[in-house]
Amino acid sequence: MRWLRTPLLLLTSMFAVAACGGRDETEAGTRIVVTHAILGSVVTELVGDLAEVTVLVPNGTDPHDWEPSAKDIERLNDADLVVANGLGLESNLDEALQVAQEAGVPVFRATDHVEVLAGEPHDEDGHEEDAHDHDAGDPHFWTDPQAMLDVVDALATELDSIGIGGVEVAAFEAELTALDAEVRSLLAPVTDRRLVTGHESLGYFAHHYDFDLVGAVVPSLSTDADATAADLADLKRAIVDAGVTTIFTELGTPADVARAIAEETGARVVEISTHLVPQDGTYRSFMLRLASTIAAALAP
User: What b-and-e string marks burial along 214-253, b requiring 16 or more CB atoms within 10 Å of the CB?
Assistant: First the structure.
């Protein structure tokens, strides 16, 4: 897809030039554009009706391989604030975000405000490669409510800087603290704390809730990578050696590969949702469903 980058940059630049004139000042409301649905649910809960929130990546869509449309780029350049994940999660938006920011749109990157876990960057073939600063760590912070609390605290300051006051940040942070305790309670009976996942998406969850990551079907922070025969052989050996009983698959996991590994190792496959916000649209429901699924699968 590298051949598309130059046209995309030209397109984003065109929209940025158009946006420099500013939108009609008579339009009511502050426009916040959020890159993906889980962040969008948090921003929506936080600001309520104080701003209009638009989410670019559709709920349940893998942000690793999502492509923005011309309308998405226009929305970025017309925003009063863009809330992005960072660390390469929305790699297909990187150029558009840079152009919008250079045109004067404030861009808040959530992962600038968390304690980032290290991760090895990979190219599309699954091999290690050098990466720029925003790719130098694990972007999947949202599986840890404490990390999300840090993001909310920083975001409240950013919202105030663009004139959105009255955000009940203390109440929302209290809800996140209570959610963290609730998740811990759900996971407390689990004694088998070994995880095999679809890709390297549960690093923050494992770190915060004391799980061990045995491996991943796609050994990468991105679902765009591919597992080699050697990778799969290593994973099967690790599953057998550790006595892992469950392989947790997710959006972007090659289902046939996961099934084959399960059949060869005696493990079972359980699907989890790491990118899908439930129908009620809340981060709380997302975390409780994730934790409940894992707890039920690993129950003694």
Answer: bbbbbbbbbbbbbbeeebbeebbeebeeeebbbbbbbbbb
Cα–Cα distance, 44 to 277 (Å, whole number): 12
Question: Quick one: CATH architecture of 2-177?
Answer: 3-Layer(aba) Sandwich (3.40)
Where do the CATH 3.40.50.1980 domains begin and end in the chain? 2-177, 186-297
Helix (H) or strand (E) holding 42: helix 37-47
- Per-residue pLDDT tens for 8-50? 444 444 444 444 444 443 344 899 999 999 999 999 999 999 9
Q: Is the pLDDT of residue 213 over 90?
A: yes
The hierarchical CATH code for the domain 186-297 is: 3.40.50.1980
Predicted TM-score of the model (pTM): 0.85
Residue type for position 174: A
